[in-house]
Every structure is written in C-alpha cells, then in structure tokens.
Write a structure and sequence with these properties.
Layout lengths: L7 H10 L23 E8 L6 H20 L7 E8 L4 H14 L4 E3 L4 H14 L3 E2 L7 H4 L6 E2 L5 H12 L10 E7 L2 H16 L3 E8 L7 H9 L4 E4 L3 H14 L5 E4 L6 H7 L7 E5 L9 H12 L9 H19 L5 H10 L2 E3 L2 E3 L15 E6 L2 E6 L14
Parallel strand pairs: 1-2, 1-3, 3-4, 4-5, 6-7, 6-8, 8-9
Antiparallel strand pairs: 10-13, 11-12, 13-14
Length: 411
C-alpha cells in the first residue's frame, strides 16, 4: 500500500522539493521503468449516471470520457500502453456509486478512478478512492468546502470552483451596458452544502460589485412548487436571478416562472441548465438562461478543435455537430489524466499522485496547477459560461473569438 502518512499539504511540499514542479506531460513522453502493474493496459474505473435524474448530463459527460480515451489511444497511448476505461451506471445514487466502484476495483487492477456528476456523487467516489489509496480525478463539482476541510490526499478536481463561478457571474453582468444592467439580485438557495456555499459566494461577490441582493431564500431538492419563491422575487423586484438547482428542479422552476407572468431580465441556473434535457423539456421557454459549466463550444485552445472534430465524426448525421458542454468537461478530465500519466515515473499510485502535484496542465478548460487541496490554483481558471440560444449552448464568457453575443434581457 502507498505511504499514507503524508497530509496533502506535506506531500505537495515534498514533491516540490524533489523538483516535480518542472515536469511536463505535454511531450507525450514517459519514464515508466520504475514499476507499475506490468500490464500492457492502464485501467481507469468510473461510475457515471447513465440512469436516474442525472442521466442526460451523465451520458454527455461519459461521451467526453470516451472521446478522451480514444484520443489517448490514437496517439500511442501512454508510452505504448493503451488506456482502458471500465464504467458502471451509478443510477444517480451515491449508494449505487459506491457499490459500482467497489465492484470495479475488486475485480480489476485499477490505476485511477474518474468521478461522476454533481457534488454528492463526486464526494462518494472520492471516499472510495481515499480509502483505497487510488488517484481520483473528477469534474462537475464546484463545491470547495469538502476539499478544503476534508484532508483528502488522493482527490483532484480539474474544474472551476464556487469562487470562479461567482466571479464569472459578476463579469457576465458587466457585459451588459451599465445603463441597462440589472440592479436587484435574487438568490434561490438549494438546501445543501454547495447550495449554501454558492449562495454565500454570489451574495458576497455581487454585493461587493454594487448590486443589491434583494432576496435570498432556500428550497429543498425535489421541490415541485416554486410559487412562493417566485412571488418573493417579484415582490422584491428582482431583475437578476441566480441559483444552482439540480436539473429536474431547475426545469420545474423555469416552467413555473414562464407561467407566472413574471420574468427577471437575467437568469443563471448553474448545473440545472447544463444538459440537453433542459432544452428537450423547455424548448423556447428555456431560451437565454445561462450556465457556468467550465467549457462550451467557442473555446478554441488546448485541444478544443480536436475535440470538436472527434465529436462531429462520431455524431455523423444523427445529432448536432456541436458537443454539449458536459462533453468538453469530460474530455478535459481525460487530458488531465494523460498529462499526469505521461510524466509519472510509473503507474503506482504514489507516482501518479506526484505527477498530479507537480504538473502544469493544459486542457480545453485552460491551464492550471493543482493546489494543496487538489483544486486548480485560485485565479488560474476562468469559469467559462454559456447561454441557451435557440437550442444551442453558446459561449458568452469569456468573450473569445468564438464566443456569441450575450442575449439580454431574457425574453
């Protein structure tokens, strides 16, 4: 078993002293002479929601995983060794996820684990990896608190965090000409750990930027009646509404907003509006709502063009040639893993962890290093944000050459 006596903070310090910060995986070269399983295959385990309430976005993220593995293997794998991805359905349920990962790791020689979608599922996977001493990489979780306070040694999340999403919201609002900009913010706060963390970050960031937080109210997951929240927002004259509901809750809320006769000028439903299920359920009723998924078509650096081409080739004539946002997010995880494996001295868990701690990563979501909590270092990642525009998820932040114009006010 790997040495578990280091805290992550101590481990990062030790890794730096050993000169790991100068390592790079971008060359595609690896030194795999120092150990490993001896197999011709590098095996990664994953549990993903292929059924249940998160299945639509889970399947999109899995497509990104699969395209990423194909990319690795089409480029000679990792020093000639193919990557194999073993996936089971977690049914959108943390208990099922734990069972799936236990099954995968018990029956296979697994070198790393990839995470699921949403903080509860990601943290359930993290617990298994921490228990087994295996590198765990996950996207689709912005939640900072369990990473900062959890004393995790094996968990890495190459994905924007709560702080980055709040900053992105402020900067998207600043795209609107000052004379037309909304002034009164409403925060609908899911009754959960990340719900509270995200609401507090929005409250602080937007208040500091000069917006008035006119209402902040909680709701429970699975809520079927948003009429009270809608009435409170209307009474408070909220013209910018932000929240981070689960996808089914966000869809319900948007339907009820549309039928209420009241509509803010700006709505951002982080997480809820990420999947294709949003547009399938709402159509035009979901138009111009914003999301902050970390990647969207329109970003054009660090392999985005290759991703777009690979997705279009796979899709053929059956679906849109533009991948949904979760596809790019999943592809980013494969890129991160490839770069870590390519600079690791072996496929032993400690060697992969050393590479994760010392590498500078370049993926479709940006360039970053991991801090002592396994998060991208603060200030390095922009939380790329998109808006539903006539059935497409159009990048509106950052304003790259491939970005679309922000549609405002919401109609």
């Amino acid at each position: 078993m790997p040495d578990r006596q280091y805290s992550r903070r101590q481990y990062v310090k030790a890794a730096g002293a050993a000169g790991l910060a100068g390592a790079t995986g971008l060359s595609g070269c690896t030194a795999f002479g120092g150990g490993g399983s001896g197999s011709d295959t590098i095996t990664i385990g994953a549990a993903v929601p292929e059924s249940g309430p998160l299945s639509t976005v889970g399947k999109e993220m899995l497509t990104g995983y699969e395209l990423g593995v194909e990319m690795i293997n089409a480029n000679d794998g990792i020093d000639g060794r193919e990557v194999e991805l073993i996936v089971q359905d977690d049914e959108s349920d943390p208990r099922k996820l734990r069972e799936a990962l236990q099954n995968i790791t018990s029956n296979n020689d697994v070198q790393a684990i990839w995470g699921s979608f949403s903080s509860p599922l990601v943290m359930a996977g993290s617990a298994i990896a921490e228990q087994q001493g295996l590198p765990f990489l996950a996207v689709a979780t912005c939640y900072q608190e369990p990473l900062v306070n959890g004393d995790k040694e094996w968990t890495y999340t190459p994905f924007p965090k709560t702080r980055d999403v709040a900053t992105a919201t402020k900067e998207i609002l600043e795209i609107v000409p000052e004379a037309e900009r909304p002034a009164r913010v409403g925060i609908w706060e899911p009754n959960s750990g990340w719900g509270s963390e995200m609401a507090e970050a929005w409250d602080q960031t937007l208040s500091d930027a000069g917006y008035e937080v006119a209402m902040r109210a909680k709701f429970n997951s699975g809520n079927k009646d948003f009429s009270t929240l809608i009435s409170k927002a209307q009474s408070a004259e909220v013209d910018a509404l932000v929240s981070n509901p689960q996808p089914p809750d966000g869809i319900t809320a948007m339907k009820q907003l549309r039928s209420s006769g009241y509509m803010p000028k700006f709505i951002e439903f982080v997480r809820a509006s990420d999947p294709q299920a949003w547009w399938s359920a709402l159509g035009e009723a979901g138009n111009h709502v914003l999301m902050s998924p970390g990647w969207a078509p329109g970003l054009n650096a660090n392999g985005s063009d290759a991703l777009m081409s690979a997705y279009a080739e796979q899709a053929g004539d059956d679906q849109s040639e533009r991948p949904r946002v979760a596809v790019g997010v999943g592809y980013n995880l494969a890129q991160t893993t490839r770069q870590a494996l390519s600079s690791a001295e072996s496929t032993e868990p400690d060697a992969i962890r050393s590479a994760l701690n010392g590498e500078t990563f370049s993926t479709v979501i940006g360039e970053f290093e991991f801090d002592e909590y396994g998060m991208p270092a603060e200030g390095q990642l922009t939380a790329a944000s998109a808006q539903w525009q006539d059935g497409e998820q159009a990048l509106v932040y950052p304003q790259t050459d491939g970005a679309s114009e922000l549609q405002y006010p919401l109609q």
